[in-house]
Amino acid sequence: MAAPQAPFLVLRDFRVWFEKRASFLAALRGRRQEFVRAVDGIDLDIGKGEIYCLVGESGCGKTTTGMGILQLVEPTGGDVFVGATPETLDAYRAARVKPDEAVLEELRRRHSLTYREKVEWGPRDTVVFALFAMAGGLVGAFTSAAIGVALVGGGASGLESLGGVPLGVVVGLFGTLPLLKRHRWIPIVLAGVGALASVLALFLWPFLQAILYHPSNALLPYIVATLQDALITAALEPIFAAIAAWESARILSDVWSRRQGFLTSRMRMKSLRQSLQIIFQDPYESLNPRQTVYDIVAEPLQVNRITRGRAETAERVQRALNDAGLRPPQEYLVRYPHELSGGQRQRLSIAATLVLNPDFLVADEPVSMLDVSIRTEIIELLLQLRKEKGLTYLFITHDLSLAWVLADRIGVMYLGKIVEEGPTRELIRNPRHPYTKALISVVPIPHPQKRHKRLILQGERPDPSDIPAGCRFHPRCPVAVERCGWTSDEVLGELKRLAGDGPLAAALDRVKLDTRHSLLLPVDSQELEAWIRNQKVVAAERCRALQALYGIKGPRGARRVILHSSAQPRLRVVEAGVKVACHLYEEGPAPVVASPVRPPVEMVGPVAA
Amino acid sequence: MALLTVKGLKTYFETLEGTVHAVDGVDFSLGEGESLGLAGESGCGKTTAALSIMRLLPKNGKIVEGVIDYRGYDLAKIDDAHLRGIRWRHISLIFQGAMNALNPVKRVGDQIAEPILLHEAVDEEVANKRVNELLELVGIHRDRARDYPHEFSGGMRQRVMIAMALACNPKIVIADEPVTALDVMIQAQILELLERLKRELGLSMILISHDLSVMAETCDSMAIMYAGKIVETGSVDDVFEHPQHPYTQDLIAAFPDIEGAQVLPPYIPGLLPSLLDPPKGCRFHPRCKKAWQTCVDEDPVLESIGDEHRSACHLNTASPPGERD
């Protein structure tokens, strides 16, 4: 349990974001790409032979962290070092503090698992990109044109309807714009040329024909008919073309972003794959039901081309089964997973990872699907393997009581961030972060006499694609203070809730959100002002959002409710080995006010009845 | 006076491999306003026992023997028409797995209204009004009645399931693993809600769970099942503080205790017996540390060892020959 000297696994500002698929229209309107920030900048040091438990509610990002370390999902940023020397880590730390970009870049290139070779984006790439989108657009437009011809019937009108194809390509090219990083003028020029062609094909050519071949008295009706024809039959094509172009541009964009990450990290990761392994949660789902025990355990050996010949494979498979407690191994070799009990299946999963002699295991809820009476069997096996083979574990669980009996250190995650970290005993017996406190208080205890006060948080965790400002936990925090991240909409919502259907509800409806930290009051709202002042006094204990009220000021007609400014709490050491990310454990100057520096208006004004 | 009494219940399943003795002679009773926990590991027959009460067994399952007495009606034998009158209006069920128990293509309000329209002679307007009340009762805003299940989180769906179970003002609610697969915080919210409803509506409740610590927090009395039989029953305090049956002792010990010592809990070696051919004598004897020859030969019966505290173990009446340890 001693503090690790040279951590085996080091994570710095580790991030895994998932792209939210933007719709074509949203992208055209210039909406920013949205991300689900599953893991959002965590630092982690795990010592050799240590068991580090990551706990938290589902959706907090603990599993994604485990998968991201093994690059089973692609990390978005940050660094992962495995088995780096203390000198390297010191140099890295120094370069980050300084900050020295060149040194940092070099260190990352040589040691980090997540380093990506940067690929410059040139005009050539844009041309390829645009042409690809154009080809997609053409395919889409032709498809719809062909459908049109088939439905409306062949002949001249059918051919004319092909005139919509270039128009589709034009729209498609514009569709690539939001995905492009640089050289946006290229598709615009291409689109311009396409638009010209489209106009020619659709309208001018029929007109020319009409002027040349029709008598002048029949000209007008003919033009009208042609216009109608062209418009109706070509209406769908641009839409089809645009969708197809957008999709093909997206595919190319994905390929591009993969290519960027391919070079360095993949090579390094490949050599490490064998020493970094994972045990999955559900032994009923994670084992192939059509493979025998032998096949399941031998597969990693075959994939990595480790053994020479059957005899060696068989020998290593048996050794792994034996190590995982499936004894005697001969008895299990030809069985299928469905012939095994839950505990035996999990042993089998463990055997399949052990066969590669790993140094580091991510154990993702390895016992939560098992009956309680056999859980300890599996845990004991994991502990024994640590003793015998010096394995290091990142143990992911939602069960704090399990972490309590198992972990050397615990990290508590909330919404993609570690909010508290410390040695097991210290963290459980003396939790500091309000979230940790609540989480510990709701762990059921198998002793009715020890029934205690549960600290039940209201509501559920927020959507990780729309993370609250400041401290992520503040909307649910029972002890949040003024600088925890309240924004004007949260405060207004809370005021409205307090007012209910009362006499002030109408006045509150006219309050406007001004900035993130101020609200604009309607004209002549002395009564409302007084009420808000009063609420700050009487309700701020219960409704923590009101803590953020700072003052009401401004000239008549433009009175504003000013809120305290906020900040995101950083994970900082509060005691040896204990780190907390909470404003309550920060020393330092009082928070600064966001808005114009003027003496604050006294909050405790005339108290309304 | 007990509201519901189950005596000698035997429910078997016919399968290709033979008869599965899922519930094999189970007795328990539930008082007015009481909450009873049915605990045990997976496959011990606790869900089957509950489904037998409502006679909601799959086709191949059958109540072979026993009496389920509810206010003088034997639910094991009464005809379907009468049973339909009792289901939901007297006894309702919160199904296991809120994630999957709701119909994904129907609005939740309509799903809650369904049992009301089915069991009570009311029109849609009355039913909808009741749906709104039910939703507010379980802490969901009434506007959400028009949403579909996928728009709700796991905890909210479980609340919907609870609202549905309460739709016809039942006397007894059977909750089958109501908090399994939910986060600890949501789990605490749901348990708190169940407790509040029980108090406010005067419900009797049967809580089925594999998690003993959940029972410790919410139930008055409990019954521990093993391989289709009840091995110990009594008040929660009695069972937890003075467990008599070796299985109960081992099972309680297997839970890590966040307030206790920082050591790995012991485990119960061996496997659950097959219910196709349960072991002779006491069903726990192959895994029991204290078993002796009598346990192999004779099946122990549930005997009183204190007020309401009963256990089925030969240790109650005899001691092992020679007291090996």
Tell me what you see in this structure.
The complex is a heterodimer of chains A (609) and B (325). In chain A, 45% of the residues lie in helices and 14% in strands. Chain A is an alpha/beta fold and 609 residues long. In chain A, the strands form three sheets. Chain A has an eight-stranded mixed beta sheet, with helices on both faces. A four-stranded antiparallel beta sheet of chain A has the order 10-11-13-12, covered by helices on one side. In chain A, strands 2-1-4 form a three-stranded antiparallel beta sheet. Chain A is globular. Chain A starts with 8 loop residues before the first strand and ends in a 29-residue tail after the last strand. Mean pLDDT of chain A is 81; it is low at 154-158 and 589-609. By secondary structure, chain B is an alpha/beta fold. Chain B contains eleven helices and twelve strands. Chain B has helices spanning 46-54, 80-86, 98-101, 108-119, 124-137, 154-165, 184-201, 212-218, 236-241, 246-253, 293-297; strands spanning 2-15, 18-31, 35-39, 61-70, 73-74, 91-94, 172-176, 204-209, 221-226, 229-235, 303-304, 310-311. In chain B, strands 6-7-8-3-9-10-12-11 form an eight-stranded mixed beta sheet, with helices on both faces. In chain B, strand 1 (2-15) and strand 2 (18-31) form a beta hairpin. The longest helix of chain B has 18 residues, at 184-201. The termini of chain B are far apart. The mean pLDDT of chain B is 90. Chain A binds chain B through residues 57-58, 341, 371-377, 379-380, 383, 398-402, 404-406, 424-425, 428, 438-440, 442-451, 454, 456-458, 460, and chain B through 41-42, 153, 155-156, 183-189, 192, 210-214, 216-217, 236-237, 240-241, 250-252, 254-259, 262-269, 271-272.
